[in-house]
Amino acid sequence: MEELDTKTLSTLRNLLLKMEKDLDEQLSISKSAAGIVTLDQTSVGRVSRIDAMQQQSMAVSTREKSRRRLKNVKQAINSMNSGDYGYCKKCDELISTPRLMAQPEAKFCLSCQDQSDRQQ
Ligand SMILES: [Zn+2]
């Protein structure tokens, strides 16, 4: 059975920890951006209010994506700690290293990901 070598694992761990930090920062910055509309509601005109609302809804959906990604990143770090990192959650095969390098928080191998993408 092939396994991820220690060097690859430590590279991936560093990637995940950096992603966790970046996403945490991003989420705390966008927290204030998502709150702008309610603060300014009385002082801005109708048009700029609509503008601000569009910006807010964009900020909210970006936040939502970042939050989901952060959750996956944290799960990946957890599975690294428990030693079952890098295996597909569906078919139990080892996920290919290039795929993990590109997306360290990946939960599925390429073919299982393909299948679940098609079902959606
Ligand atoms: Zn799979």
Overview features:
single chain; 120 residues; mainly alpha; Four Helix Bundle (Hemerythrin (Met), subunit A); 5 helices; elongated; binds zinc ion
CATH level 3 topology = Four Helix Bundle (Hemerythrin (Met), subunit A)
Contiguous low-pLDDT stretches (5 residues minimum) are none
Q: What name goes with the CATH superfamily? A: DksA, coiled-coil domain
**Tally of separate helices:** 5
| End-to-end distance | 32 Å
**What's the story with the biggest beta sheet?**
none
Q: What are the distinct ligands in this entry? A: zinc ion
SSE order, as H and E?
Answer: HHHHH
* CATH top level class name: Mainly Alpha
Tell me what the structure shows.
There is one protein chain. The protein is an all-alpha fold. The protein has a single domain, classed as Up-down Bundle (Four Helix Bundle (Hemerythrin (Met), subunit A)). It has helices at 6-33, 36-40, 46-82, 97-102, 110-119. Helix 1 packs antiparallel against helix 3 (46-82). The model has no long low-confidence stretch (mean pLDDT 87). The chain binds zinc ion.
